Amino acid sequence: WFQKAAEKLRPSAPIKFHISSRTDSGVHALANAAHLDIQRPPGKAAFTGQQLLQGLNHHLKPEPIRILSAQRVPSTFHARFCALSRTYIYRLLLGCAHHSQIPVFERDLCWAPAGGSLDIPAMREAAKFLLGTHDFSTFRSLHSNNRGQSAVRTLLQLQIQPAPGFLSHHYLHRDLEYWEVKVKSKAFLYRQVRRMVGALVAVGQGKLSPRHIQELLQLRDARALPAYAMAPPSGLFLASVEF
């Protein structure tokens, strides 16, 4: 989408476009970052940040995406490699006995695990085993294209906290609870966040114990993670990229 929109601005040379973080189909982004190298024809002044923002948004109009800000950066800047950290939020909805009870405005924006409530203290205990620097091979997708890549990553933050719904009309759904799993790292493995959240929810459901999470981590084998411990993409949001 970015590439096609930028090409409609009539650059004088092919555009080089790079995004900081790629997301699976069905995953959302509240904020992402990208950079592009765009040249205008001779005699044309370089785009200002505001001109680029307005021009790109005009051509992105049919798509569910918007540029929030744009600015000039040094040629040494790279949206992917200069990022200091990335923060993801996974939204959970508790209290739904059936998927039909998910509020209409929340559909495809959260995960409502079956079985009602979750043991949040047990999930928080399990999360402690994931914090810090580890080999996260168990939490890497079986279908990763980078199997030779190191699976060592450092989780800077992993919090499980209550959260509001996207709409404030809670009196319509008093029995529902929203929770967020907030995860921060410089970089993540393919589907790492969804697999970690799935495992934590399994702990909350009593299918796994907190100690199982430590054992799974130590196995360093993606095949060791139970098939049910995989969160769907709908609840995952890239919240921010820090530079």
TrEMBL record:
Its EC number is: 5.4.99.12
Q: Which UniProt keywords apply?
A: Isomerase, tRNA processing
- Has UniProt tagged this entry with the keyword Amino-acid biosynthesis? no
Query: Which residues are catalytic?
Result: 24 (nucleophile)
Source taxon at top rank: Eukaryota
Q: Which GO terms describe its biological process?
A: tRNA pseudouridine synthesis
Task: Give the binding site residues for substrate.
Answer: 88
Query: What range(s) does the Pseudouridine synthase I TruA alpha/beta domain occupy?
Result: 126-243
To which protein family does this belong? Belongs to the tRNA pseudouridine synthase TruA family.
Q: Specify the protein name.
A: tRNA pseudouridine synthase
- Species of provenance: Drymodes brunneopygia
